[in-house]
Design goal:
The complex is a heterotetramer, with two copies of chain A (267 residues) and two copies of chain B (344 residues).
Chain A lengths: L4 H30 L7 H7 L1 H34 L5 H9 L6 H12 L4 H5 L10 H26 L2 H9 L4 H30 L2 H6 L6 H11 L3 H26 L8
Helix pairs in contact in A: 1-12, 3-7, 3-9, 5-7, 7-9, 8-9, 9-12, 11-12
Chain B lengths: L2 E9 L5 E10 L4 E5 L6 H9 L9 E4 L2 E2 L5 H4 L1 E4 L11 H11 L4 H14 L15 H13 L5 E5 L7 H18 L3 E5 L2 H7 L2 E6 L2 E6 L1 H6 L4 H6 L4 E3 L2 E3 L2 E4 L2 E4 L7 E5 L4 E3 L5 E10 L4 E6 L6 E5 L10 E6 L5 E4 L6
Parallel strand pairs in B: 3-8, 3-9, 6-7, 7-8
Antiparallel strand pairs in B: 1-2, 1-4, 4-5, 9-10, 11-15, 12-13, 13-14, 15-21, 16-20, 17-18, 17-20, 18-19
Helix pairs in contact in B: 3-4, 3-5
Classes of the chains: A mainly alpha (267), B alpha+beta (344).
């Protein structure tokens, strides 16, 4: 009946192929995790072994910290840039989005150049400030990574806010504080949730930065890498991957239900 | 409260003159409409009065005895109804209406009391706890009005309050709005590009063109005694009769038409309702088109000049297309207006 | 005059701080690159040393291939999913976007599970198909990564297409092929350019996948890591980072000028 | 080409009945309007004729002798003008107009010739190479019309062709559209919710309500002789007079009104233009509101029933608000219509 039924028939094999391509590896991953010598209890082991649990908690913690910091900084700066026209605005925007072009490894490298043993800060303070190899260094690296992404989302959302809403609030006697609290923040909320979810997911999985800073930072992707490559403990690596994936996926799903379908579209 | 504007003007940074020096006076309780085509500066004028736009230096805006020219919008105590209504989507109907009162830091009871009063006045009782997105266009308009009116503003400013509604609703809501504004008993100023809307709601209409108020008066004054061809054309769609004025006679291609007075420097205008198909009429014309509109036929006549002249013909039958008819216009219905460039 | 001038004053220091935070590391990176023993000629060395030039070209090549493949697959699947309502559609969408939750390391790991020496394909074909450690494995890994992101962008853009445009074309006698060529593709073009730019940038910088597959794949982020950590050749690592950043940034800028300001907002 | 619909109906998968079995016949060259409030099924009917919507089994759509019920839209050779115009933004004005001809695989010269002809007919010469985004609303409408007309369709279908324009333009473009359709000399069907638009453009109007065509006729027939209260209310805004019909007299709260005939099972309707303020009139009423509308005052009268009855009063002055007036309605202007439930 429908005239493009033929075209749809052509699409079908592609869909099946794509699904298989995307789903098969995940099934395989899950099977691998429970086919080690521990069987299903490997997931119990993840939760009870301090090394794994600590890594998981640390990863979630630093990711949350980065998400919150990136949201606060980017929202403030984004609002300012979206609402003010001045000379050099275009240049500032370009600089702010430059980090988008650099991968995680380079970002880790940048952090070492600044906060490493031969880094800028250490030179200035003559040997007192080394933060590159700590959790704080990782935090800064991830933050560096996240700010431009969140910033661009906030600015796009700000441009879509109806300026009449703000004017209405002001005509009713609202000062700047109330305009931000009652009009701008509720208007930006969906975009902030979406951007935050992306920032969180990115931080959860960031490997390049962590690996470059290396040494003794135990974040989950690092542990997975170690288990797999160095210890050849495939089952545990798979189990940890499944846990990491589940946590991130849950958060993305929650964010999407808060902010409509656009949440992961920014990903 | 009276509203007085003294030489208020506005030039944008890029040099565009949005508003030429304008005077306006609105009496307490008066409902005044700013009427004009899009781009004539009427919205700019409204936004300057609200405090959302800064006028040029030398402008003066007075609310009663209070010079508010440099007062920011949040302290002006104006009620503003926006074209898009701009209701807060994150608050309920009640939350929207209470917002202005909360900003005045009134007590809970005082807010509750005033909100209930305004909701009753605007007949919004059934919708109090609804989300804004669950309201129809007409309901949104009433909420926007209630929200603006609740904090007892000194003046109510409305920016094309009916233009977001579809045509079928607009006429009904026009009468509802007129009724509410009168019940509020408040000084109000509203912007519109629709002459019917302006006439139906306002006590007084200020017609604007190219950044200037060209005539102010009651709807009857503007309709019966327009001072410029722009006002005649915009209020009541007067048509220009092309021809040569010789003394008190207009010589047209279709014949000679008697004028009410000599008008050598004037253009002659007439409205479709004053053009009669009359066998004894002095003018000859050809029927070009005919549209039945219920109370009358709108008959397009050619041969009276380069442009088609329309006649509202109230008979039971329309003359056949292409037929020759004779046309009369009573001298008292002809408007002689000074010849001028419309753009000036 | 403007009532929120005070608030703007508060923003200013934050802007300056943010700019410094984002710009300072980059300046430092550039300075590092030219303050080695080669000075400015290090950039000449990048272009003339086969190892570096090959890595750069290989990275650009595989990124382009991934971008094109992801665009083709995602557009077809996305159009089908956006235009057809059927049971299980929600589930298919969830599966398609699952890879978003997994970081590069895990993706690399997945590829090994499938195409490695002990991988699924090798088991099925009894020792004939091992592709995990080749450029093709890397390509698959990146593709796995890119499809969901491009897919979501395409679907969001498809929903925004005016269905009346399609109906207009059909009422004028256009068949399915012409509808896609004359209406749908031009309508999706800005989103496709934006999504493609993001896919390209991500592939250019992906490190986790490459590192997990490891061994002899020389993509630029790997070379940077090697130069920095193993050879301690900081100047060369910095120079390569600058080149990588510039290439990616140029592409992002070009894409943005094609598709309006939204290009990098998806980033 | 004649268009014939036989028991065309449409039920959506969720059970909503969009269209009840409908018959319609359109003669070659006739311009017919589907008029009705939103949601009455008029757009569904138009889309079924275009082939964009599949009707229920048993429906039959014929173009002349050709049964097109199961023919996909791309083979039906219909010209469609969409509400949003749906012009291709990636093509120039010329590219849009030529698109349908290209799809017919005509030669270059043939395309060029036809495009030039249509562009001249629609007076689009100055805009040929413009981008679609650089056109005004009225120009877009003309391009949409030209694009639909260029491939010589068997019938032209227009979905609310004027609703995307603002009020000021709509009246002017209504006449332009009517003129163009007549010059095209093509069978055309258009959907609208605006009775003025339907009357101004169409030869014949089909009034729809709740998925059904309730009356078909010329504008004059519908206006002067409505068959249902819905048609009377929708075409010409007739108002119901509340009261008790006793023989050929209507007893209202304001007095007794003579009817043209006995009508015991009927409701009585009248239009505002037939309500006269007349000192000798049989009815008493109070003036509730009065609005100056140029040719007349629209006077709201209370006391004639629960609802306000409006009178178009053509005098130079409006009666004072709150004053008592006497009202007359000529028996021939009263419409006696069978009592019915509006929703049925």
């Amino acid at each position: 009946m429908r005239p493009n039924a033929f075209v749809q028939l052509c699409f079908l094999p592609l869909i099946i192929f794509t699904l298989a391509f995307l789903a098969l590896p995940l099934v395989r991953l899950f099977v691998s995790s429970v086919s080690g010598e521990d069987g299903w209890s490997i997931y119990w082991k993840v939760v009870t072994t301090p090394r794994y649990l600590d890594a998981l908690l640390q990863t979630v913690f630093v990711s949350l910290a980065v998400t919150i910091a990136a949201l606060v900084i980017s929202t403030t700066v984004g609002l300012f840039l979206a609402r003010n026209e001045f000379r050099g605005r275009g240049m500032i925007l370009s600089v702010l989005t430059l980090p988008l072009a650099f991968p995680g490894v380079v970002i880790g490298f940048l952090i070492i150049l600044l906060g490493g043993r031969q880094g800028l800060f250490n030179q200035i303070t003559s040997g007192h400030v080394v933060f590159a190899y700590t959790m704080f260094g990782l935090f800064l690296g991830y933050l560096y990574f996240s700010i431009p992404r969140v910033l661009l989302t906030v600015m796009a959302a700000t441009e879509k806010l109806d300026p009449a809403l703000e004017e209405a609030a002001r005509s009713l006697g609202a000062g700047s504080f109330h305009v931000i609290k009652d009009v701008i923040m509720p208007g930006l909320a969906p975009s902030l949730v979406a951007a935050g979810a992306i920032a969180f997911a990115t931080a959860m999985g960031a490997f390049g930065t962590a690996f470059t800073l290396a040494t003794n930072i135990d974040v989950l992707p690092m542990v997975i890498y170690t288990e797999f490559t160095l210890s050849a403990n495939i089952a545990m690596a798979a189990a940890l991957s499944v846990v990491l994936g589940l946590v991130t996926w849950l958060l993305l799903v929650i964010a999407r239900s808060f902010s409509g379908t656009t949440a992961a579209a920014g990903g | 409260m009276t509203l007085t504007l003294k030489s208020v003007s506005k030039t944008y940074p890029d040099g565009t003159v949005a508003l030429q020096p304008t005077e306006l006076h609105v009496e307490p309780g008066e409902i005044v409409s700013l009427l004009g085509p899009s781009g004539c500066g009427k919205t700019t004028l409204l936004r300057i009065i609200a405090g959302l736009e800064t006028p040029n230096a030398g402008s003066e805006v007075r609310f009663g005895d209070d010079d508010v020219t440099n007062m920011p919008v949040e302290h002006r105590k104006v009620g503003m109804v926006f074209q898009s209504y701009a209701l807060f989507p994150n608050m309920s109907v009640k939350g929207n209406i209470a917002y202005g009162l909360k900003m005045q830091k009134l007590g809970r009871d005082a807010i509750e009391e005033r909100v209930t009063e305004v909701i009753r006045l605007c007949q919004l009782e059934p919708y109090v706890d609804r989300r804004i997105t669950a309201l129809s266009g007409g309901q949104r308009q009433r909420v926007a009005l209630a929200r603006a009116f609740a904090p007892r503003p000194r003046i109510l400013l409305l920016d094309e309050p009916l233009s977001a509604l579809d045509a079928a609703l607009r006429v009904t809501l026009r009468e509802e709005l007129a009724g509410l504004l009168r019940r509020f008993n408040i000084t109000a100023l509203f912007v519109t590009h629709d002459q019917d809307e302006a006439m139906a709601i306002a006590d007084k209409v200020a017609v604007m063109s190219h950044g200037k108020v060209v005539q102010t008066g009651t709807p009857e004054e503007l309709y019966r005694n327009p001072k410029t061809s722009f006002v005649a054309g915009f209020v009541g769609h007067a048509m220009q009769l092309e021809g040569q004025v010789r003394g008190s006679v207009l010589e047209m291609s279709g014949g000679r038409l008697e004028l009410p007075r000599a008008g050598d420097d004037c253009d002659v205008y007439v409205r479709a309702e004053d053009v009669a198909l009359d066998e004894a009429g002095p003018l000859k014309a050809t029927v070009e088109s005919s549209t039945f509109l219920g109370t009358h036929y709108r008959v397009g006549l050619s041969g009276l000049g380069a442009r088609t002249i329309f006649a509202n013909h109230a008979g039971q039958k329309s003359p056949a297309l292409g037929s020759q008819v004779r046309v009369a216009m009573h001298p008292s219905a002809l408007m002689l207006l000074p010849r001028e460039d419309d753009r000036s």
